[in-house]
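Weekly modeling sync, notes
Attendees: S.R. (lead), two postdocs, one rotation student

Agenda item 3: backlog of single-chain predictions. S.R. asked that every request posted to the team notebook include the full sequence so nobody has to chase files. The rotation student volunteered to paste the first one in as an example of the format we agreed on. Action items at the bottom.

Example entry:
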Amino acid sequence: MEMEYAHSLTTFTLLIAALGVLSLSVPLLLFNNHNSPAHLPLVVFLICSGIANGLPAFIEFYPTLELYGLAIWLPCYLLMPASLWLYTKAVTSPTPWYLRQQTRWHLIPAGLALLASVLLATLPKETLEQIFNSDAAPPAGWPQLVVIGAFALMVLWLFLSGVYVVRILITLIRYRASLKNLFANNEKRELHWLSWAVAVLAGTWVLSMFFSIPLLSNQSLPLPIDLMAVMHFVLLWSLSLFGLHQKPGFEGRYLVPTESHPETNGNNSISEKYQKSGLQEQQLERIAEKVEHAMGGQKLYLDSTLSLQKLALEIQVSPNYLSQTLNETLDKSFYDYVNGWRIQHAIPEVLQAQKTVLDIAMDVGFNARSSFYKAFKSETGHTPSEYRKRNTSNTH
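Predicted structure, as returned to the notebook:
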C-alpha cells in the first residue's frame, strides 16, 4: 500500500510539473512569436498533450471526469500527430509557412474525434458507467455505435501516429540534406533535437496503447505508470525548451518561391534530379573550373554568409547548374565543399598556434567553434589540437 501510494505521488507530481512547464512555455510561444505562425502547430501539440496526459491529475481533483476520460482523450490524441507534422513542415519550409488549404485535411481525423467526443459526453451517466464497467452487459443501440466509433478512432490514431512519425523523420533527413546543398553555415538549424523528441514521442505513444487497453477494461497495468509520466515530462520539457529558441530553419534566408530548387525536394536521387537539365559533361567540367577558380582565387569561402545562391551569382551560372556540378562532378554537397576550403585555409593557422581556435574559426568563415571542430575532424580525421600535435611531432 505504501509503495502504491509512493508511485501515485510520483506520477501525480510529474504530471503537475509537466502542466507547470506548459503554463509557462505556451504563453511565451504565443507572445514571443506572434509574427511567426510556424510555432502555432507546436502550441496546439503542447496543449493537447498536456490535457491528454494530465488527465489523471485532473481526475484526482474531479473524480467524475473519469467517466468522460475517453471523450477528453480522443480529440487530443488525434490532433497531436497532425499538429507535430505541421510544425515540422513549418520549421523546415524553404519559404515562409502558413496553414494552406491543402494541408487542412490533416485535421479531419481530429474533427471526427471531436464529434465522437461530443456524442460520448451527451450519453447518460448510467450508460457511461455501463460502458466502462467490465462486469456490466455492453449497451445496445445508439450508445453501442458511439462506442464502436470511438474505438475505431483509437485504432486510426495508432495507425496515423506511426505514419506521421515516419514522415516527420524522413522530412527532417531531407531537410538537413537541403541545408547542406544550399548553405555552408547551418548552426542551430539542423533540428536534431526534434528527431530525438519525435523518437521519445513514439515511445510514449506505444506505451499509451499498453496503458489504455487495460485501463478501459479495468485490468491491472502492464508497465509502471511512473515510466509513462517520466517520458511525458521529458518530452514536454524538451519541446518547450527547444521550441522557444528554435526559429524556422530557413528564416533570414528564405528561397524565392518562384525559382526551382531541385535540391530542396529530396524525393529522387541526384542523377534523377538532374537528368533533364541538358548539361553535358564538358559543360559541368567548365562550371567546376569556374567554381574552383572563384574559391581559390577570390577566397569566397571566407564569407560566413556564403550560400549556393551567392556563389552562383558570383560565377554567373544557374543555382541548379551549380548544384548539379557540385553533386555530380565534384561529388560534394555545397556545405562539404565550402567547409573543405575553409579547413584547408585554417590548417596553417592551426599549426602556427598563434590564435585561439575560435579566432581561427571566425577568420575562415565559420560562425561557431563547434561547427569548426566538426568540419575539421571530418576533413582531417583529427581535432585541431590532435592535428597540431601529430604534425608538430612529425617535424622533429
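Discussion: group reviewed the output briefly. The domain at 281-394 is CATH 1.10.10.60 (Arc Repressor Mutant, subunit A).
Action items: rotation student to repeat for the remaining queue; S.R. to check formatting next week.
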